[in-house]
Amino acid sequence: MLGYTQEELEIYFQPHIKRLAEKFGTSETEIIEKLKLYYNGYRFSQRDIRVYNPFSVLSSLRQKDFRNYWFETGTPTFLVNLLNESKLYLPTIENLQATEAVFSTYELENLRPEALLFQTGYLTIKDISDRLYTFDYPNQEVKTSFPEILFHSCTKGLRDGSRFV
Hints:
Elements: H1 6-12, H2 14-24, H3 28-39, H4 54-63, H5 77-86, E1 96-99, H6 113-119, E2 124-129, E3 132-136, H7 140-155
Antiparallel strand pairs: 1-3, 2-3
């Protein structure tokens, strides 16, 4: 419902994976590993089942390339603004820890950035130990694109975004 499992990817997209391997002059196994690195990793429950981002997989197979497709669908302005207001220290996103309570707070006036990052797919469950959830970026696509979006939002309006004064 929320993405493709590893088995589904390998069974139903095999002809497309083969064409992508031919384009890059590599094996189908290497293409599957690259698809996994870029687009797999979303985990939504205590069961350790991870799924691929369907939009990005389909885009990658159609375009016969590996890019950050999901982020081409729009900038999450609301999320960026919330993160700026909450002063969440971005390096803590990797291996961020929280209890189950993070899943139960969704009032607009009391939004927790961790909950919103999880619900919007920027973070996923990495591990669960004694009711303590560890979160991380789900894949390479998110890990490279999300900080870039935040950087551009912070430098918006500067005449020369490559210089900081």
